[in-house]
Design brief:
Helices cover 80% and strands 0% of the residues. With 390 residues, it is mostly helical. It has one domain. α9 (218-232) runs antiparallel to α10 (240-248). It is globular, with a radius of gyration of 20 Å. The chain starts with a helix and ends with a helix. The chain crosses the membrane at residues 75-98, 110-130, 142-174, 194-213, 225-244, 282-310, 322-340, 371-389. Pfam families: Chromate_transp (PF02417). It is found in: Cell membrane.
């Protein structure tokens, strides 16, 4: 078992160092490493885990990684998978926060370059996921309609509504299909543990605001703020930013420091929810980063531990499997909409940006170069052109 934990830590840590491009790209990296290369679960089970995590609040890609860790090594395996994948981003953002007052890099050229390369990485990931999750015209149509709707109504409620509606459409359209069940997701803990975990999720959500109101402590305030946001945010990634801004600006952090951290978070690999580590550092130093990071991700652990024991039974139900086909297709559409706004809109401002994004995409899609190499090439080219005044 120790050997299995070490392998899980090393693999997840390497992914944490190289997974640029946000949650969409993370899911593609996970699929390549955990499904295609290591065969820890099959394609159908992986797609179903993605659908499950899309239904839950919190960072979907991190939750998928935690789930795979639990399948591989129980609850401890889930913690190890999260630690390995998340720690590089946390360390980078804590260091950035410690020096941000002096260096003022929120407008740095390299951050702009990493935003541009993220466009290429995300577009590449969408194409790979689309081939598997929308292989026929019916599911392609669901994805397109979902993208169109979300481009008009870009809210967390719209995303949740789309997922629910797509599930209902899936039951209507695919219920009579012969649907593969996929292999069972093996777990090393019981449904009783799952029920306890869900109970703790609710207890913390209800109890922490009362504790924060009773104790005048910055650490209690940080825990309460980030636990609540981590418990209620649907859509993950960029959706967490406006919620956090409403909670911490201007009472706990200035808008300038908030936006600087936003730019840095997009520039580092790993989950965007580690933005909490940056904010915690600004508020209360390294201890604040530890509290904020734990509070932000703790709801995901409670929910994943609570729901997974019941997942094998649910996913074998014909209606649930049909609903998942619709949900998976809608997820592709949601990601397409997210590729445009906020990823494209925040990264592409000039013809130079478009040209470099096209070049980066070509390296990924046609030349089959690894994402980490494309990131390095893109940053160097972008900086070089900027130095030349282009």
């Amino acid at each position: 078992m120790i050997k299995k934990y070490i392998e899980l830590l090393l693999v997840s840590f390497r992914l944490g160092l190289t997974s640029f491009g946000g949650p969409i790209a993370h899911l593609a990296y996970f699929q390549e490493e955990y499904v295609n290369r290591r065969k820890w679960l099959d394609d159908k089970s992986y797609a179903d885990l993605i659908a499950l995590c899309q239904f839950l609040p919190g960072p979907a890609s991190s939750q998928v990684g935690i789930s795979i860790g639990m399948v591989r090594g129980g609850i401890i395996g889930g913690i190890i998978a999260w630690f390995g994948f998340t720690m590089p981003s946390i360390i980078a953002l804590v260091l950035f926060a410690l020096f941000v007052h002096e260096v003022g890099v929120e407008d740095a050229v390299w951050i702009s370059a990493l935003k541009v390369v993220a466009v290429a990485v995300v577009a590449h990931a969408i194409m790979n996921m689309g081939k598997k999750l929308t292989p026929d015209l019916t599911r392609k149509s669901i994805a397109v309609v979902a993208a169109m709707i979300l481009l008009f109504y870009q809210t967390a409620l719209a995303q949740i509504s789309l997922i629910v509606l797509a599930g209902l459409v899936g039951v209507w359209l695919f219920r009579k299909w012969e649907l593969p069940e996929g292999a069972d997701v093996g777990l090393q803990y019981t449904k009783r543990t799952g029920i306890i975990s869900l109970s703790l999720f609710v207890l913390f959500l209800i109890g922490t605001p009362f504790i924060a109101a009773s104790f005048s402590s910055i650490y209690v305030t940080i825990f309460d703020t980030f636990y609540r946001v981590g418990s209620i945010v649907f859509g993950g990634g960029h959706v967490v930013l406006p919620l956090l801004e409403a909670e911490v600006v201007p009472n706990l952090i200035s808008e300038e420091l908030f936006l600087a951290g936003y730019g840095a978070t997009q520039a580092v690999p790993g989950p965007m929810f580690t933005f909490s580590s940056y904010l915690g550092t600004i508020m209360a130093g390294v201890p604040g980063a530890v509290v904020a990071s734990i509070a932000m991700f703790l709801p995901s652990f409670f929910l994943i531990i609570g729901v997974l024991p019941f997942w094998n039974t649910l996913r074998k139900n014909r209606n649930v499997r049909a609903a998942l086909l619709g949900v998976n297709a809608a997820v592709v559409g949601i990601l397409i909409a997210a590729l445009y706004d906020p990823i494209w809109t925040s990264a592409i401002h000039t013809n130079k940006d478009i040209a470099i994004a096209i070049g980066s995409f070509t390296l990924l899609y046609h030349w089959k170069k690894p994402a980490w190499l494309v990131v390095i090439i893109t940053v160097l080219v972008y900086i070089g052109l900027s130095l030349l005044g282009l």
